[in-house]
Amino acid sequence: LMSEFDVNKDGRLELEELSHLMSVEDNFMKAFCSRQYLTRKDFDRIFAHYDTDSTGYLDKEEVMALLNDILKYHESSDAHIPVPVLKEVYKEVMKACDTNNSNTIQKCELALLLTSV
């Protein structure tokens, strides 16, 4: 199991790698992706869930966890999202949504991502 998910072979599972172990049933975004719109309360719950360190922004690992959940929901399968695919999606999302070039996603920037999902 460790060798399958430890992509960079450093002997540890980083959050990005660990996110691949979650099944779709444990996917927090599953409750929101099928909705036509998100309420302010939904949006706040999503942001708070992925802002695991309560900094007020989503860092790379937090954004990757969010993207992994979104992609897994849309894949409709138990298969994990390959890390190279997740990294490429991350780069594209940051280009489109990180409007202040902080290498993080602020709450207002998350709205850009979630309205396009």
Structure description:
It contains seven helices and two strands; from the N terminus they run H-H-H-H-E-H-H-E-H. Helix 5 crosses helix 6. Helix content is 54%, strand content 3%. Strands 1-2 form a two-stranded antiparallel ribbon.
What is the fold's blueprint, element by element?
Blueprint lengths: L1 H4 L9 H4 L11 H4 L6 H11 L6 E2 L1 H16 L7 H15 L7 E2 H9 L2
Antiparallel strand pairs: 1-2
Helix pairs in contact: 5-6
Derived from helix and strand composition plus strand pairing, the structural class reads: mainly alpha
H/E element order: HHHHEHHEH
Helix content: 40-55%
Instruction: Report the count of strand segments.
Output: 2
Brief digest:
The chain is mainly α. It has helices spanning 2-5, 15-18, 30-33, 40-50, 60-75, 83-97, 107-115, and strands at residues 57-58, 105-106.
Which key phrases capture this entry?
2 strands, mainly alpha, globular, two-stranded antiparallel ribbon, 3% strand, 7 helices, 117 residues
